[in-house]
Amino acid sequence: MPKLALAAQGAPGHDPRTAHLRPVIEYLLAQGNTPAGWRGDAFAFDQGGEGHYTFAGPIDAAELRERFAFPASIRVYDDGSIKDSLNRVDISQELPRRPFSFEQPLAADGGSNQ
After folding, report:
1. Nearest to 94 by CA among 46, 40, 37, 43
2. What does the DSSP 8-state code read for residue 15?
């Protein structure tokens, strides 16, 4: 099966920073993965202008590499995260929140964690 070639940016008339990644998102949604970000099925942009699309479930990097031909500006990492350096957007699995050190339970012997 031939790979679907992705463009480096979205076409005119669409969001140039994210539209070219929509086939990947649609594929992951069709596989049963669900959006996890607060924006739902959309990119969320942070204060620095970076766009993030997160999924609840894992992303299979090998499957994506087999199905899509990514341009040089888009990297697919072994953990399934996708980083588009040209457009400053990424797609990844939402990771569980890790507690801060001060939220850690005290040691079983009643001592501190320090």
Report:
1. 37
2. -
